[in-house]
Design brief:
Number of strands: 7
Largest sheet: 5 strands, parallel
Helix content: 40-55%
Number of helices: 11
Length: about 250
């Protein structure tokens, strides 16, 4: 069973969501003005004229062999968008030369889930998690946002937290040429005046529909789950000891 096989709830079912659920979302968001949906990967479906791309599911693997989960993030973003109509949704991208960017693929999936196109902003400059976060800071300055949220999955959560905690240090080491980031970082007083909340897709999906609990259980029992955890844990260790991004 894959998360994209769950039928989308009807408007009547969605409207049954109580105030308690909305309160939980508010606590997660922290009054965010925009939600950045970090990309995982995408999967090609069909051939020729029928060829298209969709965000990857838990059953898919990315180029590094890690478990996917982009579709779960998109559904969680659509759920948030439903209840908070003023929030912008930013899709991030690994920019493949011969495929649609992930930003566009994820944006198309969001539109298929009912999110209006005028609420979606494509960020197509990033090519990994770190540059997604650097672009987020720059976009926050350009749009005058002081509160943003980052949406990812539980497997990715720890590394994203570590990156945000070490963002300036990582930028100086790996992207010292990115003057626009450092200008934006200083604009936010070394990042202290930019509120960043981190959202976990797997905390949102069961609130949307209790049947997602089975999907999440499937994910955790998948053979790739442990492998992905190990890779992410290694990434966190490297961020903390200052070796992240070093070539062997």
């Amino acid at each position: 069973m894959k998360e994209h096989e769950i039928p989308i709830q009807s408007a009547a079912e969605q409207n049954k969501a109580g105030q308690e659920k909305i309160t939980v979302y508010k606590e997660m968001l922290g009054n965010a003005e925009a939600v950045f949906v970090l990309s995982a990967s995408a999967k090609k479906i069909g051939e020729g004229k029928n060829e298209r791309y969709r965000p990857d599911s838990y059953g898919d693997r990315d180029n590094h062999g890690s478990m996917g989960g982009g579709h779960a993030r998109v559904i969680a973003a659509a759920e948030i968008a439903q209840y908070f109509p003023d929030i912008k949704i930013v899709t991030d991208s690994y920019d493949y030369s011969d495929e649609p960017t992930l930003a566009k693929t994820y944006a198309d999936a969001l539109k298929g889930l009912g999110v209006s196109e005028n609420r979606i902003i494509l960020e197509e400059r990033s090519n990994n998690t770190l540059t997604e976060l650097l672009e987020m800071v720059k976009m926050a300055k350009n749009h005058n946002w002081q509160r943003v949220a980052v949406l990812t999955g539980e497997l990715h959560l720890g590394r994203v937290r570590a990156m945000i905690a070490n963002l300036e240090k990582l930028a100086k080491k790996l992207h010292p040429e990115d003057k626009n980031f450092f200008t934006a970082w200083e604009h936010f007083k070394q990042g202290q005046e930019l509120q960043i909340n981190i959202l976990e897709a797997e905390k949102i999906l069961p609130l949307r529909d209790g049947r997602y609990n089975k999907i999440i259980k499937y994910m955790r029992n998948n053979s790739a789950y442990k492998q992905t955890i190990e890779a992410e844990t290694n990434g966190i260790r490297q961020i903390n000891d200052g070796t992240y991004g070093q070539t062997k």
